[in-house]
Amino acid sequence: MSSDHVQSAQRTNGEAPTSEHSGAEAPFLELLARGAGADAYERPVLLARARGEPAERVEALEHAKRLALRVRSELEGRRRREAELSALFETAHDLAGLRDLDAVLQAIVHRARSLLATDVAYLSLNDPARGDTYMRVTEGSVAARFQQLRLGMGEGLGGLVAQTARPYVTDDYFQDERFQHTTTIDAGVRDEGLVAICGVPLMLGPHVIGVLFAADRRARVFEREQIALLGSFAALAAAAIDTANLLTETRSALAELERANEIIQDRSAVIERASDVHDRLAELVLRGGGVHDVAAAVSEVLDGAVRFIEATAAPAAALEASRADGHAVPHDDDWIAAVTAGGELLGALVLRGHPGLDPVDQRTLERAAMVTSLVLLARRSAAEAEQRVRGELLDDLLDARDRDPRLLRERASRLHADLDATHVVLAARLDGAAADAEQEADARRRLWSAASHLAATRHGLAAARDGGTVLLLPLAPGATATDLARRTARQLGTAVHEAVTVGASGPVEDLATHPDTVATAYTEARRCLDALRLLGRHGDGAAAEDFGFLGLLLAGDRDIGGFVERTIGPVVTYDERRGTDLLRTLDAYFGCGMSPARTKDELHVHVNTVAQRLERVGRLLGDDWQNPSRALEIQLALRLHRLSGATRH
Hints:
By secondary structure, this protein is of the alpha+beta class. The protein is about 55% helix and about 15% strand. Strands 3-2-1-6-5-4 form a six-stranded antiparallel beta sheet. Strands 12-13-11-14-15 form a five-stranded mixed beta sheet. A hairpin with a 2-residue loop joins strand 9 (about 335-340) and strand 10. The radius of gyration is 35 Å and the shape is extended.
């Protein structure tokens, strides 16, 4: 801020700059230049008073401080507005090129949560057939019941928004009596731990098609600007839903033009131009062209200057007329075609200097405006499309279909994953028995949802496979595959409210160059998962390193309990009934190379005690128990018996 600016501000307030004023602003200019906090602006005044400077000087400093704080406040407001506009522009760029509705909605919800800095964001859509609204997309949600909520019209905050087409905000939902509380809705909100909620309607024309929410797990007051920003994202979401039909409509328009060509022979040249522009527009959309590419293509076909302008730069009356009836309208020597989507005004296409526009060319301009809206909305969905292909990339790695390391790295990089880092492959499965096929499918979906969220937050990948879920997660320095498996089992189990068993491979590296490593590691993880379930360690996690060579033996459907009982059952029973240590002595005996002398040192007992215990073992198992073949079976049974009890210690 220059001295001229301060003096100008003084003149605005009816004050002429004095010598005291002209020198007073210097410290505040420095504070503005380095972006100091508001508290720092008191220091020059306090120092002047402490030094006993004249009252006129102190008053000049006070005045300069007020001006500087006003400038600082205005600058902060502008920076905040610029950040929001930049974020909306980035969202438009991120959504480009997407055609999958779920991906578009997920991207919008993710961005809304990020910009408003809330714990959770979610989107519900109306179900005309059932007369209610249901949860479609969530971001940050951890409660399965909340993610499956359905709200009747007028029920809860969301139902009221859907019914009235007005935004509603509460800083404490459970204490707010404006909303119709129901047991089902309150239970879902309580599971999620939500307190403050803001909901805005998704509008297509005059119709509400759903609600976009932002919510916190603590009391919070949503500012007017934040509600308006959420409303902008709601408009994008509504437009995204409408976009799913735009490409089909564009192609239908081409068919209409072809039929018109057969009927109106004398207009064949015009129809040919219209068909050409629509072909070009369709090609532009498919290859990810921008709005200026659309304008250039239409300019060439209509033999005129067509350009895209922002809504604020277009003639207001003509723009509103075009928006209202959905057609291009004349304005002086120009034609104005509103670019809209879901009730949101995105801008306009302006054809300059063409007062007499042919009806077919007018229709072409209108279709170009529709395609422009499609391009704008498509640019808002790029980031979320990459999230949708997270599972596809892991499927490709598992099936080793794509062996181009550069392409694999590029795909992973777009998902914020690093295939050159050390990873672990984990196989996860629910252990609860489902009552029927529908419940089982629902349980698998919940596991898949939780695993996908976990993979996204850890810069990994997740995919549904073999009745369960497979994850590829990076291994942190100093951590082990076992640590990762157990932590993942706990987190997934907490998310789905059921026991989840997780088997992990050993660490794998260089996945881009050797993608078949992932398939091999997945087989190893499945083997560990089978071993855990076979040993009854449900809800636990383990890696191949926990089983050693036994992992190979545990992969099949083997009667582990029966083998242990047949091999060392009498010793187990003897210890349980008499409280003796024959099993421990036997384990130490084999561990010490079958040396009684070393065994007594290991157990800290007299060698005669070892001899007596081994004699008892011989009577229980038979005289040939130390033969090599019997000794190997006994050692294996001891190991299996110890592993099967690991989760009970």
